[in-house]
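Tokens in:
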């Protein structure tokens, strides 16, 4: 399982749950099977670009969360950097 697949799976699962969506609902919304959603959430999927785009759109995922997980908003250093950048001219 690649790190990217693992981050994608976690993001899909977390965002799907936040939206109170079932795997079946997400599958219907994105045009893939429930099995595909299950595989992606378990880090086993390697979705094509059109499927990835559908997932990101349906779940309102910031692509940075998937491809650059260390840049997420939960990172304390990132928050401090954002504050410093906002205060700079």
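Residues out:
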């Amino acid at each position: 399982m690649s790190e990217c697949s693992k981050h994608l799976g976690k993001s899909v699962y977390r965002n799907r749950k936040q939206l109170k969506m079932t795997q079946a609902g997400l599958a219907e919304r994105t045009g893939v099977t429930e099995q595909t959603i299950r595989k992606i959430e378990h880090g086993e999927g390697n979705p094509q670009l059109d499927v990835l785009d559908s997932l990101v759109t349906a779940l309102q995922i910031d692509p940075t969360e998937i491809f650059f997980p260390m840049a997420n908003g939960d990172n304390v250093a990132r928050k401090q950097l954002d504050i410093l950048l906002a205060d700079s001219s």
